Amino acid sequence: MKDFKVKDLVITSLFIALVYVFTWVVKIQLPFAPNGGLIHLGNVPFFLAAIFFEKRVGMLAGAIGMGLFDLTSGWVMWSPMTIISALIMGYILNKLNYPNLKFNNLIISFILVAIVKVVVYYIGEIFILHSFILPLASIPGNIIQILVSSIIVLIVMKPMEKIVKQI
């Protein structure tokens, strides 16, 4: 980590906080998924960090920000899935989009991220719920969560590019 500068630490910390707050404040409980299910907007700052900054920034912002949310809000059993999926999702978003952002790569990365989210949570919930069937109820919520976040990211992409160039 010798090439991890103070600026990187500050940006990473800021995005960890943004991911946590967006996950905590902007969330919708799903009545049809096991244990309620949750759609949140924490993925928006997470995706932006992974797309616009060095790989570690996005991966850590997602894993720590959402992992802390799970640990502090009654979703403790889901925290390993959250951390694992966020690390993989952050890596994918970064590899396909940073530093040369292209629309097609962005769409492909959103699709891959949705697949990762669904697969990791499905496998994790098999162990939590002791069923291969019950975790299927979480799939629509996971897809909706990624879809909504992806659309918002597409909307704020241009203003974010301008801000990042100034940093």
Number of domains: 1
Query: Shape, please?
Result: globular
CATH architecture: Orthogonal Bundle
Q: Note the main sheet.
A: 2 strands, antiparallel
The CATH topology is: Arp2/3 complex 21 kDa subunit ARPC3
CATH C-level class is Mainly Alpha
Largest sheet, spatial ordering of strands = 1-2
Helix content: over 70%
Output the helix-strand order.
Answer: HEEHHHHH
Determine the mean pLDDT: 93
Protein structure class: mainly alpha
Oligomer: single chain
Number of helices: 6
Please tally the β strands and state the result.
2
Low-confidence sequence ranges: none
> Compute the gyration radius: what is it?
15 Å
Strand content: 5-15%
Distance separating the two termini: 21 Å
Keywords: Membrane, Transmembrane, Transmembrane helix
Transmembrane segments: 6-26, 75-94, 106-133, 139-157
Pfam families: ECF-ribofla_trS
InterPro entries: ECF_substrate-spec-like
